[in-house]
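Blinded run. Sample ID left blank on purpose so nobody reads anything into the name before looking at the predicted structure. Input follows.
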Amino acid sequence: MGGMNAGRLIEVAGIFVRLRWRLLRGAIRHGGGEQVGAVLSTVASILIGLGAGGAAAVVGRTSSHAAEHVIVLCTVMVIAMLGFGIVVGIAQPIDPRVMGSEPLSDNERAAGLLAASALGPPGLAGIAIGVGVIVGMARGLLSLPIVCVAVAAWLLTLLLLARTATNGLALLVARSPRTGQLIVGASGIVFYGAFQFVPFTLGRLDDAQRRALAGMLRWSPPGQLGEAIGVAPHRPALALVHVALGVAWLPMLAKEFVRSAQRLTGATRRSGGLTNHDVPRSSIGRVARRLCGDGPAGAIAWRSILIRFRTPRTALEAFTGAGVGLAAVLVPAMTRDTVGSGAVLVGGSVQLAVLFMSGNTFGSDGPPVTHELLAGVPVRQLVLGKARSIGIVAAPLALIGPLVAASITGEWQYLVAGFGVGVGSLLAGTGAAVVQSTLVPIAMPESDNPFASGESGKGMLAGLLLFVVLAALAIATVPVALGLIWATERGDTALVTLFGALTVCVGWAVAWLGVTVAGIRLRRREPEFVASVTPAR
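Blinded prediction complete.
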């Protein structure tokens, strides 16, 4: 019976793997955004797998501290996979809810889901990294099987822990949207900040600090597997003990994954909308309404602000976008010694935050936008209203960013210049955001994750165009940015303040240009635009 069950599990796993690759090939054949996303994700997996695997092999063969490095790698990778799983979306390559009606047992479904994740492009990239660790750390025939077992256990830990966590979060979001999406957003912000801070910190550790860090991390289950890999060439018996300690929690993780997948299969999404009928009565709401202005543009701007806070997901997009942008300035400001660095860096943080918050401003309320176009609202008024709503929602960043940078660096003399840079960057980011949203409009996704673009198939394309828009934005603002850098290097507060004021002028020009370009594109491609922002029914 056990052999029959094992054979059935292998058969189901093979079916899921074939389905995973068939879906990938179908996305490539489909063309458009789905094709670009599938190709980019596959290429990125190949580059990451080969690059990180090669680096692991080289470090293992050449570094005298390879045993310490592998302990840190095994532990940090587990934490990074958790964060990355949250950022890219609370979903698996094959959603358990889609397979709920298939005649499969819980164990068969779990085995298939794990196999599809492990043998897809990202999973194969992880296997390539594991092979790199084996090549770098194995010494002789006696240590090779021990290192292979430890690496296999480590990769299984990565897979089970990441998928169990994403299942649990998806289940939480389905049953308690506000709590679940708050956890998702906060975790994603922490991941973005840690992605900048952790590599920088690890690179500055001296030998004593690295040994202390490895000594602390080795007591975790992944650290035990890293310890086993490190000591296998010299003390194979002790390495086996570490392997046993490192895999002790795998049965618990496997059981929890099966249980979470089973519960997610039957989960139903509950409403978690936020009420906003009292917003106009609040003092903040009254100020925001006045800032929107009158006429069609003012009405569109106010409606866009209200819709932004209609559900936990749309409201959380604003806060996560702001957090990602501020994380971009916090870490550099903490780690740079250049005078005036905070005043310079705050500009990039505000621009990035605005683009993260509002890069899909038209797709976030597609049906109202469609009705307004069909009713004959002038295109420029529509774009201008959207731009106003972006500026109003993101305006606090222009104040918070400079204050955070000044409080970290202690450069309060540049605070006025920081406010100028913040306002200019807010205006420039607003112009870039409306252009980005007209280039790749995405109907409001059904994904639970505010970082992901759901099932639109355009997430990777939107991410690629985000870099293009950022590059264009950098080119447009590079003269004043260079002047600001020159002034900060001279330490002249008056000059820095002057260039901060010039940033406002440049930002205003970029915002006007962005609204004009977005309006021209929308007028020329209105039918395609309407089809893109209309959610599927």
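Unblinding after everyone has recorded impressions. The chain has 21 helices and no strands.
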